[in-house]
Specification:
- It is a single chain.
- The chain has twelve helices and 19 strands.
- It is an alpha/beta fold and 489 residues long.
- The chain folds into two domains: 137 residues, Aspartate Aminotransferase, domain 1, CATH 3.90.1150; 259 residues, Aspartate Aminotransferase, domain 2, CATH 3.40.640.
- The strands form five sheets. The chain has a seven-stranded mixed sheet with strand order 4-10-9-8-7-5-6, sandwiched between helices.
- The structure holds 4'-deoxy-4'-aminopyridoxal-5'-phosphate.
- 4'-deoxy-4'-aminopyridoxal-5'-phosphate binds next to α4.
Length: 489
């Protein structure tokens, strides 16, 4: 079609200026022109259902966020060495969502910067250089993070100060849970011993509470707690990388680390914070920040600038106003129910993983081996059916479904309907070059936004709990009360 040729021409221009290695999704890259809510419009005229993106956390081009960014940009944007109220307001509102122990934030512009800074703080505090991560994880693109990346293609070898743990996964291991746990903790002990023997010691355990890049693994109960205890006993700190798991994604908790009985020393943030505007941060304790700040001047030109702060505040406001953590819980439950049926009835779908509005569907081939080709086929086929998803895991055989938090039941139904048809096709043909005729997405399913009453308290495992610490988020434009955000504790 004309739009396909136009996309190819643009691809050729892109390749000429950025080279051929900047990754893009799909065999034929998707050429999009605009976004709205859970929809991305292609140049082919199709509205694609976005069941993949967590950066537009509160929806593509969310009007509240867009307005906040535009208003602030029209008023003032400047680096961070002047006093400006919305910046402080955002820090207060963000911290109010954490346990009161975690009462300081340093802003950054990305997840990579956040992890880089957290590791620096841990190294300074502990005097050690060793880092423990999980196998097939990803934490960012800087020099030192490339040295601990095991989950994406990078040429750097693991740093000599890095040890990667094979994360236990109850969906893949049929042994008794205690055996799985024992073996996993033996690995932690071995990693710590080898870091000690090599003279590195341990500065930190850096992990993603949902083990997202790893393929949304289901660890034995008590595993994360035990690792944290062992790391601490060896003198290290615990860093929760919430770049993917944060801001209510799991449905049952606002932050991913709250799924476990641990108290992380540092929490790193990125992706969804600014709904696409680059906002990240490191949340930590007063003690750690004092210690780090005494010896180090941390200055970051753009991080937490007034426009970023306005974007971040607007995202928190939308989260509270529209009860989006609760939405992840409710809509996620519906999706889980329907996706479970695929596990029961479809030969290629082995397991459903994930929490809240974040799912992994593990694929196997006809011999029970990782179904990498089948998963890829379905991702491509779903795109032709107007639905965007992707893949994760060491074998890239786990479908990654992680839509914006405003996903509604009707979007779940559309997603599952298309997935079902796609699996029908896969089962019938089992051919990778299958040329399914493109189906356009039906309708756009958009609904008028319903204003939910402002709620106070914490939403935990499907219920609101009252909470003593609440925080008012003021509208930067006119100072009116925009939302009331609840604190942990
Ligand atoms: N941590 C995790 C868990 C991530 O998924 C990512 C990005 N995929 C990063 C860190 C790096 O974030 P950024 O690309 O914003 O630097």
């Amino acid at each position: 079609t004309a739009s396909t040729w136009a996309a190819r021409a643009l691809m050729a221009r892109r390749k000429a200026v950025v080279g051929r290695h900047s990754p893009m999704f799909y065999d034929e890259p998707l050429h999009v022109t605009s976004g709205q809510g859970v929809w991305l419009r292609g140049t082919d005229g199709i509205d694609y259902l976005d069941a993949y993106n967590n950066v537009p956390h509160v929806g593509h081009c969310n009007p509240v966020v867009v307005r906040a960014i535009a208003d602030q940009a029209a008023l003032l944007n400047v680096h961070t060495r002047y006093l400006h109220e919305p910046v402080v307001e955002y820090a207060e509102a963000l911290l109010a969502t954490f346990d009161p122990r975690l009462d300081k934030v340093l802003f950054t512009n990305s997840g990579s910067e956040s992890n880089e800074l957290a590791l620096r703080i841990a190294r300074q505090h502990t005097g050690n250089t060793g880092i423990v991560v999980t196998d097939f994880s990803y934490h960012g693109n800087t020099t030192s993070l490339a040295e601990l990346t095991t989950g994406l293609r990078v040429k750097e070898r693991l740093g000599p100060h890095v040890r990667a743990l094979r994360t236990p996964d109850l969906d893949a291991d049929e042994r008794p849970v205690e055996d799985v746990l024992d073996e996993a903790l033996d690995q932690v002990a071995a990693a710590l011993a080898s870091l000690k023997a090599a003279g590195h010691g341990v500065s930190a355990f850096l992990f993603d509470p949902l083990f997202s890049t790893e393929g949304l693994l289901r660890t034995p109960p008590g595993y994360v707690e035990a690792v944290a205890t062992m790391i601490r006993a060896a003198g290290g700190l615990v860093i929760a990388d919430e770049v993917q798991s944060g801001l209510g994604r799991s449905g049952s908790r606002f932050w991913g680390h709250e799924l476990y009985d641990i108290a992380p020393d540092l929490v790193t943030l990125g992706k969804p914070l600014g709904n696409g505007h680059p906002v990240g941060g490191v949340v930590t304790t007063t003690e750690l920040l004092e210690e780090f700040g005494t010896d180090n001047l941390y200055f970051n030109t753009f991080a937490g600038n007034p426009v970023s702060a306005a974007a971040g505040l607007a995202v928190l406001r939308e989260m509270a106003d529209r009860e989006l953590q609760r939405n992840a819980w409710d809509v996620g439950a519906r999706a889980r129910e329907l996706l479970e049926k695929l596990v029961e009835h479809r030969p290629h779908v082995k397991a459903l993983r994930g929490k809240g509005l974040f799912f992994g569907l593990e694929f196997v081939d006809g011999n029970g081996q990782p179904g990498t080709a089948q998963a890829k086929w379905v991702v491509e086929n779903m795109r032709r059916r107007g639905v965007l998803i992707s893949r994760i895991g060491p074998h890239d055989n786990v479908l990654k479904i992680r839509p914006p938090m405003i996903f509604e039941p009707e979007h779940v139904d559309l997603l599952v309907e298309r997935l079902t048809t796609s699996l029908d096709d896969l089962e019938t043909t089992e051919a990778h070059e299958h040329a399914a005729s493109p189906a356009s997405a039906t309708g756009n399913g958009r609904k008028a936004r319903v204003n939910s009453p402002l709620r106070t308290g914490l939403f935990i495992d499907g219920k609101w709990r009252s909470n003593s610490k609440k925080f008012d988020v003021m509208n930067p434009a006119d100072g009116s009360l925009a939302a009331r955000v609840s604190a942990g504790g």
